[in-house]
Amino acid sequence: MELLKESTFKPIIYILFIIYLSSEILTLYFIGEIYHFLDKVGIYSQLGKVAILIFIYLLLRFPLGFILNDQYKKLNQYSKDMKISYERYQTLFRNPLNIVYIVNMDGVVVDINSATTTILGYLPKEVIGQHFNMFLESQRKDIRNKFHNENLQIDSESFIAKERIKHKNGKIIDMEVLSIPYTDEKGDIVGLIGVAKDITKESNYSKKLEDLSQRYKCLFEKNPHYACMFNKDGFVEEVNNKMIEDFGTNMIGSHYIDLLSKNDLHRALHDFESVRNGEVIQGIYQVVDKKGMHLKVDLKSIPIFVNNHLEGKFVIARDITEKDRLEQVINSDLDLAKVLQESVLSKPIRDKNIHISGHYIAAKHIGGDMYAWYKLDENRFGIIILDVMGHGVSSALISMSIRSLLEGIITKTKEPELVIQRLNQHMYQLFTKNIDSIRFFTALYLVVDTQKKEIEYVNAGHPSGIVISKNNILLESTCTPLGILENQKPKVKKLPYESGSKILLFTDGFLEYYHDLSINEAILEVASTYKGNQHLTSEELVLEALKNGEVTKGQDDVSFVKIEL
Amino acid sequence: MDSMDILQVNQEITIKNVEQFKVNLESLLESTQKRYLILDLEKVTYLNSSALGCIADTAMKAKKVNKELVVAGIKPPIDEIFHIVKFEFFMELFKSKEEAVEYFSSK
Fold this sequence. Notes:
The complex is a heterodimer. Chain A is of the alpha+beta class. Chain A contains 13 helices and 22 strands.
């Protein structure tokens, strides 16, 4: 780049000055000769001579002066232009973010800027004069190859390529290199100007993006459920393999309403608007497959926003046709089981000295609650309410198993503690001992003697019953639930009652509706509700008590027994 | 403390998490060589009947392998439930973890 320096132009200016000076001397020489010539031709007037000489001087001097002056101005302008170019080159070279370098045709670095220190760890002086191969992971013989193996041609002569460049510490840095041929005044390529940019971060982002894209592709294409991309107008843009398999290949470009059963169209339009407003919508829809079969799908529509603009929606749908059919079968069976379970609950007794009634609400079709009563003799009635731990089918089966034994045990066993012991034995032998896992039930069993006006009861871990008379009396728990211990030693309690007294029994599912109260507070609240609504039946009382309540822990079976004495 | 292991439960036990509670109790019993096991229910405000079944089951199984499970944190509101089911007939119940630790320490 020495050619571009200002000092290069000084000799030219000197030469021009010498030419100018010489021309002045020659002019004066000629004027001297003409002066003598005028004497020879007989012109002696000094004024005439001076006038003639000034005329001749001007005739000789001005054209040359103009020519030289014009050349000087041009040279001066050229010098300024070159100075600007040099400053621009220096500015480009001072770029701290990119490595700017020049290599000759042999691949030797001629010049390089200071960014090489921050990016590659080398001082410029360590690099200038070295072959550019020192930077390259894969060696290259000379730069001519560089013009034949690049990734992208940006015009006829310049290229952008991605290179793996070695840092001084050996670490490889991904760089994007812009290579521009460096030509001499004849236009021949004499080297290469390069601008190299560190793109490690971009490469990492790019790789992560590629990985994400690959994962998305796997998730989308190989998803076992239907996956589909719609544009913002509801037209299919992309579908996965599962959709092609069941809905054919002609789906791209079709509208979502073409896929749905006619019955779902109104809801689908409404849901689509919600998705356009940014909501995620889940719902069960019927769709028609390529064979014209109606499938039931559980689908989720997710709006896709890019830069806060709705691009479309992503829909993933699970075929629940078979599951739905099986559920219907199971529900049908459960409905039947519910009828059977309710059919074994004791019917109300209306005797002259005692009225017994109950009401039961299963949490899910069927449950583990049970109540039953039997007339033991003319004046004695055995009444039991029980609650098998857990919920659903297994609890209901245990409950029914106990129910099958109740009548035999209660009617043939006089003492309440023996009734409880035999039930405990049954539960322990059948479940706890055999399946090595405790299953238990709580029970409150009481025997009412209407002649003696006396109540005997055993409460095996069950919420207290309540006797409502002048004073409320709680029938509190006296032993553990049944099925836990092999040998149960139930404690029987006995208390008298007055005519007109009422006894209320319930399971904990009923008390859960009073979740702000403790168990005993809830029992007293039930008694209070009863006192204000004594004309109501058991069913009406339960509904009255439950109507203001709210279950927060997960709904349990509800059982209620009312004994009017 | 070296011979004790403590399982602390920090939330109510309902139908939604009772299976996990059962797994945690089984793990407490089976994965430790420690003989004395404390179930700390101090932060539990509710537990359902299935959870009670799990506790009773674990307590009984612990006895079979010469271990002992006790329940700590029997305070309102859950003390009422334990009062009803009379678990004190077959296992020790304590108001606080410290009482349970002291019980085992004195053994």
